[in-house]
User: Fold these one by one.
Assistant:
Number 1:
Amino acid sequence: MFERFLSQELKSKYQEFCLKSFTDNSKNAGVTKCPNVTCSRWWKKVNDNKGNGCITNTTIVCDCSTKFCGLCGLREHDPLPCKNALDWQKRGSEDTQTRIWRELNTATCPNPQCGVTIERYVTNEDHCLHMICSQCKFHWCWACRKRFKVGGADADHENYYKCRYLQEGSVGEEVKKRERVLRESQMYKFYKERMKDCDEGVQQLQLLTTQLKETIAIEGKEEEFQFLIDGIDELITATLRKKILNPVAFYSAHDGKKKLFEFQLKYMNEHYEKLLAMLTTQPTKQKIDVNKIKLDQQAMLRQAMQTKDQALIQQILNRAREQIAKAKAVMRPLSYYKEREEDIVKATRSVSEFFFKLFQKVRDGDLVTILGSPDPKNNSWFCSNCQRSNTFGESVCECAWTAVKK
């Protein structure tokens, strides 16, 4: 009854809260909703044939074709355990991202007589560590949170850009926590960007499927070119599996298996790229168009961020991804595919078998040890092209920049 006294915005928030409360409670009763926002289907868990309450197959395929986990209700995340999938989702929430930003960009003045909170947004170009409190005028180091003085007999820092206390590890718990948050934040951003690339790849392949089906239907050769549709379907499945392997790498232990896991990912990409090259083409003109779309997207996002309109921001992102997918989805002539039918069938089978074995090894723990939280020793990513290790602050390997310069 009281809803009639609420504004439309508050009413929407109240309804969202009620739905979330119902959804959370329904999970305890074995009922879960399809995570697809456009789908209204609900599912109930049932016992297995043994009647012992165990669920042997946790992946549910909804009528809308959405695959999701029957235990936690999230989209399909096998072989990543539910607790890791839930933690990954939480790390991407607005509340968590706000907390991380606050921990990375605010600090308390180390002067015991002051203690005021200071905000500083540090960019890649701003590496000066010298801070002066606006309240008490105390000089201190942003990196180690200690007194800052350069030069003289009582100097405690060599220059304004490096901190030996931080490099030696002789810092307090607050600084250690910030360094851990920074490292995990960079790791999360790195793998999240690669998941977005996979989403764009799926959109590209779906558009290519539509183009091919329309062309094949006009020619009336559906059965003759079924191998082609099967190949693209396998690529879509492989892309979704590549997407799931990113959070797996995020939680992987830095142990003896890590290098083997990275090399398996390298071979996985080789199989994947070989089949992708057979099925798609991307002229230079299309690459230029993609770069222009991304630049336009960044400009529109900067304007949208000022209004904090989440719906508008999401709309801009979705539109840009669709445009990028259209720019990339370029099919070859049907005669090209027919001439290479045998090679395409072999490559499709190779991708399917390799991904199946790879996922089985990850599930069994033969390739990677999945931890409950990121391993502190895991501070770099492996470039499958040049086999160079890069820090998570570097989203692109040096070999890629070298290729562009050439």
Number 2:
Amino acid sequence: MSSKTDGEAAAAAASRPGPRKLKILMLHGYTQSGPSFHAKTRALEKALVKAFPPPPPAPHKSPASSLRNYPGGIQLIYPTGPIRLHPADIPGSDPSVLQSSTTSTISTANGQSDGRGEEDEDGPDAWGWWKKADAPDETYVGLERGLEVVRETILAAGGVDGVIGFSQGGAFAGLVASLLEPARSSSFPSPSPLPTSTTTPPFAYPAAWTALNHPPLKFAVSYSGFYAQAEQYRGFYEPKIATRFLHVIGSLDSVVEEARSEGFVERCADALRVVHPGGHFVPVGKEWVGVLVGFLRDVLARDEQEDDGDACGEKGGVEDMDVPF
């Protein structure tokens, strides 16, 4: 089954007619899937739905936390990466543990088939947005396929407002946010018509994303994310990513090198960096969910001010927002 079908199935419910929703793209980590990432972040989803309820119908007064611009409430969209991983692709893997216990089709967060068919029945339910080639070039093999799945998901959803990603998905959140920024395509040099055997050609801006005609994201969030170090991906980060970005880093993370996470923060112009006292996971405790909620409230409040044409005062950066500690 094609990755196009996979992405469309994950976003189908978000595109149904109805009141406008705050749509957030949820990008899983390496070896996960949309459904497995959804299962791991249910507490996060529940907290967001509670924190940002849709406004009640007139004449009832809306609570302060309601989404004035999004009467349909909030919706998280969980696509699955197109790169099927095998035990050999996963460091320290045990084939008996990774063996899939799923049936030939797997439901998405919206209760629909994600498009994976019988060809996947006997393998591990482990997926990625790309696979990294061996050094020295560290090319992201299959990145174009991952980008196409996300593009199709965004298209099927009728657009999205923000993105949240974990690990590889956190890194991918940066790439997606970057591609949707105005004039970003000019940051990517034209691919050389005559690539040499000694250099890796620069990554070319995907033409299909130009045709997407999507506004820049309102926000992006990375948990245990990192930046793409290879020279060929410089266009994603120069100039710096302008999208408002929350970076949540685990102080005990032994999977992603600290330098790569910190380097990611440095490549974002409007970034909030928060460190939790844990490892390589999405923290869903009350305090850390509060950080996400506070960040989103700040972003959405500024968005409402812009819609109201509020010209009083200067915009503050995310470093000026209040966090619950």
Number 3:
Amino acid sequence: MRRESILLLVVLLAAALAQNCGCGGNECCSQWGYCGTGNDYCGAGCKQNCGGNNNNNGGNNGNTQWGSIDVNTDRGGQDLPNMPVKASNVGDCQAKCYNNKDCQSWAFDSCGTNCWLKNGKPNPGGANCRTSGAINGRDNGGNNNGGGNNNGGSCLSRRLEDVKAGRVPVRGTNLGSWFILEGWMVGWMWQDNGCSQDQYPGTTLLEQCLGNRRDSVMGKHWSTFITEDDFRIMSSYNLNAVRLPVGWWHIYDTQGGVAKAKLNQHIEPTNVFAFGGLAYIDKAFEWGEKWGVAILLDIHGAPGSQNGDDHSAPPANHQQLWDKYDANMAQTVDSVEAYLQRYASKKAYAGICLLNEPKVDTWKLKQYYMNAYNVIRKYSKDSIVIINPLITNQNTDQPEWTNFMNAPQYTNAFEWGEKWGVAILLDIHGAPGSQNGDGQFSHMFNCSPLSDHSAPPANHQQLWDKYDANMAQTVDSVEAYLQRYANKKAYAGICLLNEPKVDTGKLKQYYLNAYARIRKYSKDSIIIINPLITNQNTDQPEWTEFMNAPQYTNVWMSMHWYHIWGFEDKSDDWKLNYIRNDRKWQVDNYKNKNPKKGIIDEWSNGGIGDGRAAMQAQIAQFNNMDGGWTFWSWSKTWGGDSWSLRAAFEKGWVSKDQMGVQSC
């Protein structure tokens, strides 16, 4: 009998039994009284239904150290403190036990979400609606400090695979200002090179100011700002991912630089960008694979700028042109595809964030997301795809985004990521023309523009959606990145556009175009989409109904939650209470309304005087977001310790045990 016929028979049988047992139309009732669709759940007879079964995915039965999964059994013995904990499925419960050095066995409520971790290995006993198991062993006893790779290679590889597969949430940091520079963080890059931040905010204009010095100046920055040692240290702190902000143009180093590249779209300017950054993105994937750190690419700078902010590298100061010209959105999809062609096969590749902090037309934004998704799935069938709503209002719990794109429907950085087990999320931080173009001055610093992070080619101008070529070029750049990195072990995914301030319709169209390109190279890596930077209304229909499963695979939604801008008149105690109460509600609300996994991929301790209190309050809430989080940022910069995750670890504001990631 043909396989298709067998599958059809199973489905029809399941549906028939389900109707008799009170289960859903695509489920059947097991002999133990719960509903499911797998081979183990269609037992004989109709028993009392005790609810949907969560025991059909995520397990690690093939790994001898994780131990076997024993269905319809329970473990007695002594529970660890504060049991039970919540788990999404049996594999999640098993992983929680393995990643806790005090846990020796576990039991899971197959009809619910309760997971019990135990400090002994009692013999299993028969029990309906229970699944249990025992841990057979751990690399280095499960308590290595991460100081070296030695015998931890398999452990780091498993850490990498766990975060890429979604068995554990993201616990990571942003590599901000490595490729998309922000003056408030690395102001010395302007100061030491005679470039005014007022006149030349953002990466595009800085490199324009540098002139024929741009390759040497930027090359020195790329080679020293982040090194393999950073990946090693991140790994030792049990971080399992990084979000890597990139521009639409970096991927074209493969053609001698974007100025020499044969682009499918007409994009201006292209002759101002430094050459050589791609080699260090390659290294990130190598280091990510080595040190167990997954990489999420992030389209932080799109053609024309998706928000006009300086951190989107706008070609004209404060101008957002990304959704004003179809070529901008088309180029963004081309760039997404190029990234996937390069990195989708890398072990560290986890996924991509399609557009950071867009301030664009929602319809165009959604169209971009869908186009980008289709591209991504050509190369990666199930890597993470993260989409951002408008940066204001981030209404991720509304149908606009909850019903959108839901399931099921450079060498250095990647080398380091692979080596040290740090997955890499690429992030398109600077798009052609800049996706946000903002350049307002900071209230914290006397001389530094706060928002130069989209590398605008013209001061404070956001032009990304003003010209179609900018958007088209961004897609081309994404594709170039994927061509280069999708096969890297450290590649985890890509964020399609950072903090866009563009036309939402054009932004969505870019996301769709980029998705299509990405999936040519990476079938399942993460794709992250961003809402507009204001209002981040990720709970509104505009985003809740966009790019959802099953039509779209592994698309995540990005949120940027800071407690400094808009909180200037609030006391520290007020902010801490806001985090404990309002942020908790927002996390729960998002998870209830938006079917896409959520990731808080930018947050910091900025704005609160007590760094430890700020860190602990946010960790307590953000650890509950299903997709996880990445802190802004890693390195110590002019921004101070409140903006450095490395400093937070070193000062004892947070510990590696709070990451919920296995020590290697």
